[in-house]
Amino acid sequence: MKRFNIVIFLLLSYFSNGQEYPPPTDLITIPTAGTLMRGSFAMDMRIQDEGGLIFGLGVGLTDRFQFGLSYGSPNLIGDDSLVWYPKPEAKLKYLLINEDNTLPGVSLGMNTQGLGNYYSDDTLGRYDTKALGLYLVASKNWRYPIGNLGVHFGINHSFLETSDGDDDVNLFLGLDLELNPEFSILLEYNSALNENEMTAKTIAINRGGYLNAALRWSFVESLHLELNLNNLLFDNEKVEYFKREIKLTYIEYF
Fold it and tell me: Residue 132: which H helix or E strand, with range?
């Protein structure tokens, strides 16, 4: 009986402990509580629909604080007149509470980079998909026989994109599931509570929030390739289909 109790204890410990290596700092479009390790940097390139590209660079200044910038164009590839986003955008994140066996990790951050087209001619000053703005996110990771399962939940306020008449606080959640050491499935939901009033609802391309899914392939330790299927709950009166995107992320140490 004593041996049986020891086995049960070891199994419970195995499933309750967080993963042994740093968790992802982002899913598809939403952040996790994870941060880049001190002395590391991440470069990413998001290839959007209609030839859009967004380039990003993030640096782990400490084990708790990371800083980054991003910039791009909604139509960098193509034969239309080239349009750039109006300015570089900022990404900051600070880990407030470390994850342990019982409590999730919690981070406070800011991300001003939205997705898709940017509307400036009519003074709306917003992206197709609003940036998160200020956010608070909690993450909890569990090990299971073939890898890691992470669950993430957050709240955000898009403080820079309120000229459309909707400045409500928004909610988001997501998960990442390892299938093996190379492949992971990502799933996330952005409730888009800040796109359901007045002009915001007229522009919004989702129907009931943004549901996104992705397959992430880590074919080498520091390079990740994602196939993203975004806005699965699309409004077919405004867009013909959901968005297919590719994202490349390279992580390295100084």
Answer: none
